[in-house]
Amino acid sequence: MAWWLIKPQNQVHEIILQCLPSFINWEIWKFRCSYKYDGIRSTTNRVIDQITMLMQRTLAAQFTTINFSPPFPNIFHVVERIRSQLSIIPVSWKSPDIGKYKLNVDCCCKGNPGSAGAGGILRDHNGHMIMAFASYLGECSCNYAEIQAIKIGLKWCLDNGFGNLIMESDSLLTMHMINGNISTSWLLKDEINKIQAMKAKGHIQFNHIFREGNSTADLLANLAEFKKYNAFFTSAINLPMQIISTLKNVKKGGPNFRIRVRKNTFIFDPG
């Protein structure tokens, strides 16, 4: 049991932890069957070599940029000294063109399903806030909460004459559903149809944005879920201080950094 609880040091180590027990059992089973049915007795070293070969070929196929040369201690020497390479990308909110407006929305869901809140903010080409909202949604799924955030924001914009609009969400799945790039679950079909009907009432473009560029909407959604309330703001001075601070940073063009582990890309640390 302890084997399965080991925390892997990197992606290569994780593959070894997952595959090695199966390779060991497979080679022992082959050894047993060869002896029982064919009378062929392999040596322990032969079994170890076969396990090493299986492991080496698996790693070489998965991680083509790393040299995994037998024997096994050499493989472990490499695995212990490689570090995953990070991808660090600055992500900033981009202002719309003059005459257009941008609505950013997000949701906060404590579980799936779970207690959820929706948040959003409408800004002009100078980054000035026109409207922000925080809305508690009760218990629902993450996808449903994201869709409700879009509906709440769009309804306010259309009701108040802001139909020349770019709508941004960090839910790529929801954006694909609204833009018709993927089929929609029957549970969400009616809600997506309502959004598409709203889209027809204005000049509305639906775009995906990385979560790091959607920080103000994210804070508003978390506020709605935490306080369990509904509020619309038409003046930035009425926003909570943390949101005002984030809003100012975004307006100045200050980036947030998107940090991800690069898949199958490593740095060798000789120690």
Automatic annotation (TrEMBL):
GO molecular function annotations of the record: nucleic acid binding; RNA-DNA hybrid ribonuclease activity
What is the top-level taxon of the source organism? Eukaryota
Kindly provide the name given to this protein in its UniProt entry: RNase H type-1 domain-containing protein
Q: Name one Pfam family in it.
A: RVT_3
In this chain the RNase H type-1 domain maps to 97-226
- Could you read off the lineage of the organism from its UniProt record? Eukaryota, Viridiplantae, Streptophyta, Embryophyta, Tracheophyta
